[in-house]
């Protein structure tokens, strides 16, 4: 067989036809290919089998796809029916209502019915109740720690105020103690947001253990004379004042000191008031409310003086430290007066004795 024109052509046939060869050059190829008629027949047969198998597989896949489409259509119909039933079973009036359901609005806020409770009181480790069932503006949070009774171990009750003004409510707390999770990291109030007042049954305790302190000097000691003299002079320069609070409508008179006066008294003696814990100055800040992407956001921003550049500060006084300074300064004053009186009495006695002796001799 020759392939002068690219198409196989038999030249002669003899013996086993399957051993006859055909040489050809495929269209676009640069080299010729030679195959036997037997191999060519086997390849054609194999291709026919593969085509038949592929056809069968395609038919099977089409059947399964049709079945899946039918199942999907059926599921969609079932889902629509279920949604219809659910909508009928939970009307909009039940969202956020007593014996209703919790609704989530477009801002992911839950609408919880008044009186809703999470947990089963004394049987679960924790039970939290929102609302007290009778007061629409009140709420109670209760924690139960499997105590076997119906009494909560911890309770926090929120009660609304009696006026339309915001911030008129109150919080009642019931537990053995209220303590920070870690020592010396949590403050109660800030210079910019101080508490209005503190009412306590007993005096406030301040940690004063020797193991927690490093003594740098003792007021009145011989090795602390220079500092003692300055502190006594600073204390003597601090005047007590009677004042009213500008933010109070009830103008009751208060007695105390002005932080700036304390600052000036220490500075006048060459002392840096910031080195002493009795005087503090904290940068003022304010909470600003804004709306970002439809959400209410609160940020803390500086408060500036009238120039709009200098951050304002809030000066405060630790009265227990200031008055402690006063106690020891007054003790030294009494000691000095006592020494002077003793000296004067001694001189007076000496003078009297001398005068008496002179008179007797005369």
UniProtKB/TrEMBL annotation:
Residues 208-348 form the Peptidase S74 domain. Residues 343-362 are annotated as: Disordered. Gene3D superfamilies: Winged helix-like DNA-binding domain superfamily/Winged helix DNA-binding domain (1.10.10.10). Pfam families: Peptidase_S74. InterPro entries: S74_ICA, WH-like_DNA-bd_sf. This is Tail fiber domain-containing protein.
């Amino acid at each position: 067989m020759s392939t002068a024109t690219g198409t196989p052509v038999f030249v002669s046939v003899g013996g086993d036809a399957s051993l006859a060869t055909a040489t050809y050059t495929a269209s676009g190829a640069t080299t010729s290919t030679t195959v036997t008629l037997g191999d060519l027949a086997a390849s054609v047969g194999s291709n026919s089998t593969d085509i038949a198998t592929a056809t069968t597989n395609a038919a099977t896949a089409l059947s399964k796809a049709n079945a899946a489409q039918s199942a999907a259509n059926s599921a969609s119909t079932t889902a629509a029916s279920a949604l219809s039933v659910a909508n009928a079973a939970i009307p909009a009036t039940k969202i956020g209502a007593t014996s209703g359901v919790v609704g989530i609005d477009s801002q992911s806020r839950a609408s919880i019915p008044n009186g809703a409770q999470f947990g089963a009181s004394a049987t679960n480790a924790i039970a939290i109740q929102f609302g007290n069932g009778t007061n629409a503006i009140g709420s109670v949070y209760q924690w139960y720690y499997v105590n076997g009774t119906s009494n909560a171990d911890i309770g926090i009750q929120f009660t609304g105020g009696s006026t339309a003004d915001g911030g008129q409510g109150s919080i009642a707390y019931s537990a053995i103690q209220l303590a920070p999770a870690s020592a010396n990291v949590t403050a109660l109030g800030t210079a910019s947001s101080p508490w209005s007042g503190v009412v306590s049954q007993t005096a406030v305790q301040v940690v004063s253990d020797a193991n927690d302190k490093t003594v740098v000097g003792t007021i009145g000691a011989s090795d602390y004379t220079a500092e003692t003299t300055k502190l006594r002079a600073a204390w003597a320069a601090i005047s007590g004042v009677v004042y009213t609070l500008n933010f109070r409508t009830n103008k009751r008179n208060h007695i105390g000191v002005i932080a700036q006066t304390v600052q000036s008294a220490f500075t006048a003696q060459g002392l840096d008031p910031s080195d002493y814990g009795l005087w503090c100055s904290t940068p003022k800040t304010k909470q600003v409310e804004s709306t970002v992407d439809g959400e209410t956001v609160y940020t803390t921003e500086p408060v500036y003086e009238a120039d709009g550049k200098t951050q304002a500060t809030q000066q405060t006084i630790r009265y227990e430290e200031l008055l402690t300074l006063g106690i020891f300064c007054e003790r030294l004053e009494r000691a000095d007066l006592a020494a002077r009186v003793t000296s004067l009495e001694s001189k007076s006695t000496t003078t009297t004795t001398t005068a008496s002796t002179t008179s007797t001799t005369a």
